[in-house]
Specification:
flat, 2 strands
């Protein structure tokens, strides 16, 4: 019974996990050398100490596991507390404008300095801003992203008739031209980086494969009479070792594996280098073409025969020619010429556009208001206001432009508010109507410019 005088004896097998992980094999080797009977209990001091040390190591490992788990739990608790604090703030605080503004301010302060120090300019910052606030279509209106807003301001400032109804596509083409130029500079830097990357990769692979070939021939030199592999088998083994299934040597060269390995090894290395050059060049050309989205139209036979410097020059020249052809196809002879694909697409889009109000529509609406507010003996009362609004509504029902029904109702509501405030004074009433019509046309023109910008992928990607 527990508490009675006596002693305890513990039995531990060499196949126990504790012994297998911490020294069981060592004890087993000792028993084998001493030829100890497996049935004899092992009670030597060295074994007891080994078991004690093993137990200590296991306890230490378990302690470290618990310690790390507690550390991870502390990290999770910190994150959990922060998230819960934000959640509680959302539930209890009515206005979160300051919190959101502070979060944005912190993020911007971190990103702007890094973006301005980047070699290629603040492109990553603009991409992040567009990701935070992409362009949104809300009903009939388009709310542009930050980058699109900058382009829109630039196009609006360069319009030949900023207050007119017509849209000049030359500023749009200049935006496209500048965008293509910036993209071409970025693409050329990317092509040069790819060339350097693949050159380093080629040198690394060549060094690795040459080591494999040298090790293979060293094994041939050290082979004895027990090595019965045929020349064909040696060739297949070498092809597998160099990861080149196309590696094939003539029968005479295969026989030299045994008779004169020093003679055939340079031939093998040359063939391996040529095959690797072909592989890397093909992959490099494919990577550049995927990057540019266009074919380089290179002669692969000439490219594979060239050394690396010539290859780099050929790919660089072909990339410039490809980008130049694309620019000529999209822009023709420049923004002013208007003879490229982009100019034709913009003109086709404009030809399908319909003005929200024609000049006839504007005159009809203004005449309706003028007829009511300037009627002899009219007083600024509710009846007169309703008659003026009905006259405008009747004129709006006959518009020939693309003014939507929702816009007509909005216009009626705005006019009612303004006409009530102006008390049907003729000059102010007519000016109010003219201002509202001008705002509608300006909004339609702005949305049209945004849609035209979105038609040009190089301006939005």
């Amino acid at each position: 019974r527990q508490g009675d005088p006596g002693s305890s004896r513990f039995y531990l097998s060499l196949q126990d996990e504790l012994m297998r992980r911490f020294g069981g094999q060592q004890v087993n080797d000792i028993m084998q050398r001493l030829k100890v009977d497996e049935a004899m209990p092992i009670e030597m001091g060295i074994v007891s100490r080994l078991v004690e040390q093993s137990q200590t190591r296991v306890e230490g490992a378990n302690f470290d596991i618990r310690k790390h788990l507690l550390e991870y739990d502390d990290v999770l608790n910190t994150q959990r507390s922060a998230i819960y604090a934000q959640r509680d703030r959302i539930f209890t605080k009515e206005d979160l404008s300051e919190d959101v503004t502070e979060m944005l301010r912190t993020e911007v302060i971190q990103r702007v300095p890094k973006a301005l120090e980047a070699e290629e300019g603040p492109w990553e910052l603009l991409a992040w801003l567009d990701k935070v606030q992409p362009s949104l279509n809300v009903g009939r209106y388009i709310f542009p992203s930050y980058t699109l807003h900058l382009l829109l301001e630039q196009v609006q400032e360069q319009q030949s008739d900023p207050e007119g109804k017509s849209v000049d596509i030359v500023p749009l083409l200049k935006v496209a031209e500048n965008s293509l130029k910036a993209e071409e500079e970025h693409q050329i830097r990317a092509v040069n980086a790819l060339i350097d990357l693949y050159q380093d990769r080629l040198q690394s692979i060549k060094a690795e494969r040459r080591d494999a070939v040298e090790t293979f021939f060293e094994g041939l030199r050290d082979a004895d009479e027990t090595d019965t592999r045929t020349p064909r088998e040696l060739n297949d083994e070498l092809a597998a070792l160099t990861h080149l299934p196309s590696l094939r040597l003539a029968p005479e060269q295969q026989r030299q594996f045994r008779s004169d390995p020093e003679e055939v090894m340079p031939l093998v290395i040359d063939q391996v280098d040529a095959a690797l050059n072909s592989q890397v060049v093909t992959r490099l050309v494919g990577a550049v073409e995927r990057r540019l989205g266009e074919s380089l139209e290179l002669n692969h036979a000439q490219v594979n025969a060239a050394d690396w410097d010539q290859l780099a020059d050929q790919i660089y020249t072909a990339s410039l020619a490809t980008l130049s052809k694309r620019r000529e196809r999209l822009l023709g002879n420049g923004a002013e010429a208007k003879d490229g694909q982009i100019a034709r697409d913009l003109e086709n889009a404009l030809s399908r556009e319909k003005e929200p109000l024609t000049e006839k529509d504007r005159l009809a609406i203004l005449q309706a208001v003028r007829a009511e507010v300037m009627k002899p003996g009219s007083a600024p009362g509710a009846a007169e206001l309703q008659r003026a609004l009905q006259a405008v509504r009747a004129a709006l029902s006959k518009v020939e432009g693309s003014l939507a029904e929702e816009e007509k109702e909005e216009l009626i509501d705005l006019l009612e508010a303004h006409l009530t405030q102006s008390k049907l004074q003729p000059d102010r009433s007519i000016q109010t109507v003219e201002d509202e019509l001008a705002q509608i046309e300006a909004r339609h023109r702005r949305d049209l410019l945004i849609r035209l910008l979105l038609m040009m992928p190089m301006c939005t990607r």
